[in-house]
Amino acid sequence: MGIVGRIGLRLLQIVPTVALVAVLMFALMRLLPGDPAIQLLGDRATDASLARLRHEMGFDRSVSAQFWSYLEHVATLRLGDSITMHVPVTRLILDRLPITLMLTGMATVLALLIAVPLAFVAALREGGAVDLAIRMLGQVGLSMPVFYLGLILLITLAAGLGWFPVGGIGGGFVENLYYLFLPALTLALSLAMVLMRNLREALIEVLHAEFVQFATAKGLRRRLVLGRHVLRNALVPTVTLLGLQIGSLVGGAVITESVFAIPGVGRLMIDSIFARDYAVVQGLTIVLAVLVSLVFLLVDTVQGLLDPRQEAA
Amino acid sequence: MSEVAAAAPALAGAATPGRTRRLPRLRPGPLLGAAIVLLLLVCAVAPDWVAPYSPLKFDYRGTLRPPSWAHPFGTDNFGRDILSRVIWATRIDMQIAIFSTLFPAVFGTVAGCLVGYFGGVADLLFRRLVDLVVTVPFLVLVIAIVAVLGPGLVNMYVAVSAVGWIFYARLMRGEILAQKRRDYAAAGRVMGYGWPRIVFRHLLPNAISPVLVFWMTDMALCILLGSSLGYLGLGAQPPTAEWGVLIADGKNFMTTAWWMSIFPGMAIVLAGIGFSLLGDGVAALVRRR
Amino acid sequence: MTSLLEVRDLAVQIGPARPVDGVSFALARGEVLGIVGESGSGKSLTLRAILKLLPGIARTSGAALWQGRDLLAMPEAEIRRLRGREIGMIFQEPMTALDPVLPIGLQITESLGEHLALHGAAARRRAVELLDLVGIPGARRRLDSFPHEFSGGMRQRAMIAIALAGEPKLLLADEPTTALDVTIQDQILRLLLRLRDELAMSVILVTHDLGIVAGTCDRVAVLYAGRIMETGPTGAIYRTPGHAYTLGLMRSVPHRALARQRLQGIPGVPPDPGRMPPGCRFAPRCTLAVAACHQAPPPLRPLGPTHATACLRAEAVAGMAAVAA
Ligand SMILES: Nc1ncnc2c1ncn2[C@@H]1O[C@H](COP(=O)(O)OP(=O)(O)OP(=O)(O)O)[C@@H](O)[C@H]1O
Ligand code: SF4
Ligand SMILES: [Mg+2]
């Protein structure tokens, strides 16, 4: 099967998973105790207004009727309307998704820029003082929650030194890049710590591999041995890990967007939760699941390119 | 943290003859981890004994004081001693570490055992569930559940438990599958033992160590998660002193009183380091066997 | 005639162990030298030590004179230029020695670029020639194949092609045939001999197998527990072995047909490199051992112009070999 066919197949495999997520979200929102209408309007709301809201949310119909119309909504990519903002959820999400994608994209690039050199230095000096220092840094970094890291950067670089804005995203692409730098760095640092630790181990393993010795025995200069043979092989597990981290990255984005007041989908998620805007929470979860699935697919494809042995599998 | 560098396999495939089994050496990393965790536990059990002030005592003449000898971590906008609040918050955060992982660890282990041992439809369903859970970011899923149940610590435990057990079960399932292939499970069957005995007396004890190691790491992760939810306002609720909540309290004073956020955050980092170092130690112990 | 390579008193220290301990031999231009010994005798370490390929924890001492210049004393930049260009090496396991994620073609052309300044299409053409030379069918198509797409024999050939890319004067071949079945084994050995003739290359052939040595090598060095036990012309050693260990090896492989077996005829196991016996290292397993054998390590002494042994009872051994013959 060609690469296109394989990707197509994987795309199809996403469908049932996302459908399951959708069903799960429906169950979660409808079957758990509590009346969303009361939660939304408070227990002193009049019966009339409660009834109106229930009707608006479709809660006055039977659960199965709700379920079918919900599935229809999901299947047609209309995710309903936001109860609080009175706009289609799809619009709301699509408006904010680019910002989050930009944030996570920048963060991934930054994380690689931080993690790869540090991991290389540590692995080449395995057991030395530099290695120890880098590993201790990693240990501290791994124990640092994203929101705290963000606050530290805010306090020092933004509020303290005034190098960066303390929040928002500015207007225009260039300003976006500037405004998003600090939040992206926040996300990147916490991702980089995980990457660094694993890449270091992968590198150490590869450095001891026979084929690296053989490459040296061929008389290749060190730069070529490291940059081609060692890096290419260590990249394989790193890409896998990068894929596995996508969940944490999205979770981190949700928090970071709150810390830096960035109007992306993560912020939208938190706001909707406080507003009890279930349609938005539901829709967002589904969209994020699709996104994560696409990243998994991307990672698998890249993996196949990086490691020819996986083609067969 | 200093691994024994000399033990690294330098030439691939070279056997090192004459290596003898020794008692595990006490390495500084895990020892430090144990010390940190112990300190945190003391703070959690007897905060009134450790903390210099009451965490609730307002002092309107001494608000937003920077760190000093009297108040090493400074005071907050109500003049409360931040060190004391951080110490009292330990109780909540340790509770988070334990309560968010206890049910997942126990239930997940048992479920993983059964699914791994019996396979079949249950296993199929379980694998779908795993696909599902890895597709939705953990934090997003937990937040969504908390959204429905309403913010608060107890609801957070419910949300984390509802999802978290799956990771333990997946780990356990893999171990059981590996164990099952070994012959003593077959030997047990031949001897006519019932499945509960085979699963819980023979398979489980041999498969449990990775779960114990993961548990340690998971506690660290749950402290990070719990404090994040606290910070977002979805976990512990404000009058409660919790590290994340304390940091959120300080956020409005970011420019004027950095100490309000910075010190509680250090407690989180310390706890994270403590649990993961201890986890490394447990992992090393387990690997030796 | 001056030697192409002369190894003097080579020793490798790893922690408390000394798995290579005072190895000396010399190699003339165009010569094929066999190094034989059981598993763990230090054959691979010796070859790697010569090219300074051992990891930092291994301490190497002695000298390895390449056309008079000591490789072991050379700065890294200088020895790097010799690796692959003057001295090529074939590793023991083609499965692990080839980079799994790069196509074979690239693994050849990168050497060509490094040593011969051949790049692009010219390098690819030369790579095809090399693959042809080592007998890989459909060489042009195989350039873009990955190691896992090759069979064991083909991988071994590919590795030889890579080692030949820099047109070295000396090829260090670490058990190039151990993993292969007899027919392929034969092909590879004949290939090496042909290359020796065509390219005027010297070869050090490391093997477990005295049978292979008999058919291939001009001279032999028998290695045991990190030391040279006996060294000399192949014919002389076969006719009149001068060391009890060599005799044991010969008896454990009576027929060429059985040559593929690992040497296992001598009872007992080699000593632990950390705890070597004080006298002759073979003494604990030797049926001919006398009291003196356990006292001090016997020095190499000449038996003929180029034949030397480290056995105190060389004459008895020769007698036994004669009786058997
Ligand atoms: N990195 C290392 N650390 C400790 N001991 C080592 C190391 N590398 C090799 N040795 C030891 O050195 C000895 C010689 O190893 P070497 O690989 O040279 O043997 P060999 O003769 O090539 O054996 P084989 O025929 O199995 O390839 C062995 O006892 C081995 O255990
Ligand atoms: S020196 Fe002695 S022990 Fe060693 S091989 Fe000769 S006879 Fe045997
Ligand atoms: Mg070897």
Structure characterization notes:
- The complex is a heterotrimer of chains A (313), B (289) and C (325).
- The model of chain A has no long low-confidence stretch (mean pLDDT 85).
- In chain A, helix 5 (89-124) packs antiparallel against helix 6 (129-142).
- Chain A has 14 helices and no strands.
- In chain A, 79% of the residues lie in helices and 0% in strands.
- Chain B has 289 residues and is mainly α.
- Chain B has helices spanning 28-45, 47-50, 82-118, 120-135, 138-149, 153-181, 183-190, 195-207, 209-232, 243-251, 259-288.
- The longest helix of chain B is centred in the middle third of the chain and has 37 residues, at 82-118.
- Chain B is elongated, with a radius of gyration of 23 Å.
- Chain C is of the alpha/beta class and 325 residues long.
- Helices cover 35% and strands 21% of the residues of chain C.
- In chain C, strand 11 (301-302) and strand 12 (308-309) form a beta hairpin.
- In chain C, helix 4 packs across helix 5 (120-133), helix 4 packs parallel to helix 7 (152-164) and helix 5 crosses helix 7.
- The radius of gyration of chain C is 20 Å and the shape is globular.
- Chain C starts with a strand and ends with a helix.
- Classes of the chains: A mainly alpha (313), B mainly alpha (289), C alpha/beta (325).
- The A-C interface holds A 208-211, 213-222, 224, 228-229, 232-233, 236, 306-309, 312 and C 48, 51, 53, 55, 80-85, 88-89, 91, 93, 96-103, 110-111, 114-115, 146, 148-149, 159, 162-163, 165-166.
- Adenosine-5'-triphosphate (ATP) sits between chains C (14, 17, 19, 37, 39-45, 92, 208, 273) and B (10-11, 14-16).
